[in-house]
Design goal:
The structure holds two protein chains of two kinds.
Chain A lengths: L4 H14 L1 E5 L9 E5 L6 H8 L2 H5 L1 E6 H4 L2 H10 L3 E3 L10 H9 L4 E4 L19 H8 L4 E8 L1 H4 L12 E5 L11 H16 L2
Parallel strand pairs in A: 1-7, 2-5, 2-6, 3-4, 3-5
Antiparallel strand pairs in A: 6-7
Helix pairs in contact in A: 1-2, 6-7
Chain B lengths: L1 H12 L8 H26 L7 H26 L4 H21 L7 H20 L5 H22 L6 H24 L15 H25 L3 E3 L3 E5 H18 L9 H29 L14 H23 L5
Antiparallel strand pairs in B: 1-2
Helix pairs in contact in B: 2-3, 2-8, 4-5, 4-7, 5-6, 5-7, 6-7, 7-11, 8-9, 8-10, 8-11, 9-10, 10-11
The chains are: A alpha/beta, B mainly alpha.
């Protein structure tokens, strides 16, 4: 899907509101298939990561979002379509219809994903990151070729905090780290803790 | 190319005329001449072997000259538009940008969120709308933020219900609003001054250009003079490169240049008035630089952000302008126009 007017407009708007300074630490932007996983503190997180990517990478990167929220009304549907978001149906999770299977089916051998493994948005002002849910573990187990790129975002909770609907324009920071993979014989808990650490480490860079 | 010449013809024919008149053009010409010399000097320095000059300083110099070109170009283009509104919008955007840097740097709490929304999207635009409406609204534009804005900010934070470090948070937002928006808005307000006591003087674009030029020059000259003859640092823990010698010598040089620039006829001042005005700008500019340095030291950062290559943040560039603008505006208004009555 080509990038459209709405997407360019949203990217510009994000840059005005969140003024992200982008850094790549031990990794480079690339169009290869990746999963960007990040700390989650604000509604605009996906948008900020998405607009921090170079245009060619952005074209093949899809944010994940909840279907029940993003399919309400033409405006949200239009936004989700413009960003080529991968909508996940939270109500219809079954054994043969797990979100992971659906993600893998949807991205094929072309698209990258933006995910937030914390599950929900974190409450705290302190930049704390909660324990990760197991999604990225299963995702990497089924598709070991996917690069998992940690992303740390700073200041987003001041731009649009939880429970607010009007953003305040401030500068933010987006740091992309070195990709990680599931190691041989690594347990689920070890891997999730390591993934969480890889995001946390970017906080102090 | 054809399009460009068409635009030029249109501008030449425009009945109301743009802000750029003859004397301002001369002043602009002088600045562009100096920039050409500086650019050439930068290129010559770059070709020198590394042992004779510090390449980092040369690089910083080249970046600085490049940013000056950018500033001059932006101002010249806004002056070509036949209404001061373009300049007001330009300064409004600079305020917005500077305030964004300021608030990012000073921690706020969740309870300040809605207040900040008002500050960015209501108070800031309102201030610039009042400036753009001209001298008829001088009274309201000069009190909107320091009277009503300040009362509003403290009350709005109180209503949000978070009392932790209340006074500190109120003060931070007020200072940010005051320096980045209110003080800076006096610069474009210069364009609306009229009824000059000097009969030969008509348009104010030259006045604004002169002001910005002197503010930037004094900043640079105080720094350069300090490098050569500086002995006594004013406040080592706040800014290690600002010395008393640099301050006095730099201000003196600025006064001489200011007096010389009055010959272009771009300002309503004669040469000694121009020299005095330059001293006022230089002193206020130094005060601004010291104040903003103190805030940066307290927050433990070197610069306010990164926008133009080789330059720190918008706020690092405009600190002198912010502090000098209200004083320059008021002296000009009260002594060189009949507006004050």
């Amino acid at each position: 899907m080509d990038l459209n007017l709405t997407a360019s407009f949203l990217t510009g708007l994000t840059k005005v509101f969140a003024g992200p300074s982008v850094r790549w630490v031990d990794s480079q932007p690339d169009t290869c298939q990746r999963v960007y996983f990040a700390n989650h503190t604000s509604h605009v997180d996906s948008m900020v990561i998405w607009s921090s990517l170079p245009t060619d990478v952005r074209k093949v990167t899809r944010p994940t979002a909840a279907k029940d929220y993003w399919s309400q009304g033409w405006f949200r549907r239009h936004l989700a379509r413009s960003l080529n978001a991968l909508l996940i149906d939270r109500d219809k999770i079954k054994v043969h219809q797990s979100p992971i299977d659906m993600m893998i089916r949807e991205i094929g051998d072309k698209y990258s994903l933006i995910v937030f493994p914390e599950g929900g948005r974190a409450h705290s002002d302190s930049g704390e990151i909660r324990a990760f849910k197991s999604g990225i573990y299963y995702l990497n187990k089924k598709r070991p070729d996917l690069e998992l790129v940690p992303v740390y975002m700073d200041n987003m909770n001041r731009i649009l905090p939880r429970g607010e609907f009007l953003p305040v324009p401030l500068l933010s920071r987006v740091v992309f780290g070195a990709p990680i993979w599931l190691e041989k014989g690594e347990t689920k808990n070890d891997f999730l803790a390591r993934a969480r650490q890889s995001v946390l480490r970017l906080r102090d860079i | 190319m054809i399009l460009f010449s068409q635009i030029l013809t249109l501008l030449a024919q425009s009945p109301s005329g743009h802000l750029l008149d003859g004397p301002t053009g001369v002043l602009l010409g002088v600045v562009i001449g100096c920039l050409l010399i500086a650019t050439a000097a930068g290129q010559v320095l770059k070709r020198q072997p590394d042992s004779s000059v510090n390449p980092a300083i040369v690089q910083a110099f080249i970046h600085r000259v490049r940013a000056w070109w950018l500033m001059t170009a932006i101002l010249a283009v806004t002056f070509l538009i036949p209404t001061p509104v373009a300049t007001v919008i330009l300064f409004g955007l600079i305020s917005f940008w500077a305030l964004r840097e300021f608030i990012t740097l000073t921690p706020t709490r969740l309870g300040d969120h809605r207040t900040l929304f008002w500050v960015f999207f209501v108070l800031t635009p309102a201030q610039y709308v009042l400036v753009g409406l001209g001298t008829a609204h001088y009274e309201l534009f000069s009190i909107l933020i320091p009277v009503y804005g300040f009362l509003f900010v403290s009350a709005r934070i109180a209503i949000a219900g978070d009392y932790k470090r209340f006074l500190e948070r109120v003060a931070k937002i007020q200072v940010g609003l005051y320096i980045c928006v209110y003080a800076l808005s006096y610069a474009p307000a210069l364009l609306y001054l009229e009824n000059w006591t000097n009969a030969d003087y008509s348009t104010s674009a030259g006045l604004l250009f002169f002001f910005i030029l002197i503010a930037q020059l004094s900043d640079l000259l105080q720094f350069v003079c300090g490098k050569f003859i500086g002995r006594n640092v004013i406040a080592p823990s706040i800014n290690a490169s600002r010395t008393w010698e640099g301050f006095f010598a730099g201000t003196g040089c600025t006064a001489i240049i200011g007096a010389a620039l009055s010959l272009t006829g771009a300002t309503p001042f004669n040469s000694w008035q121009s020299a005095l005005m330059s001293i006022v700008i230089a002193v206020m500019g130094a005060a601004g630089t010291m104040t903003m340095s103190a805030i940066k030291r307290d927050r433990g950062v070197r610069d306010y952000g990164t926008l133009v290559e080789g330059h720190a943040g918008v706020l690092d560039r405009i600190d002198a302008i912010c502090f000098a603008a209200p004083v320059f505006y008021h002296i000009t208004r009260y002594y060189f126009t009949t507006l004050a009555g």
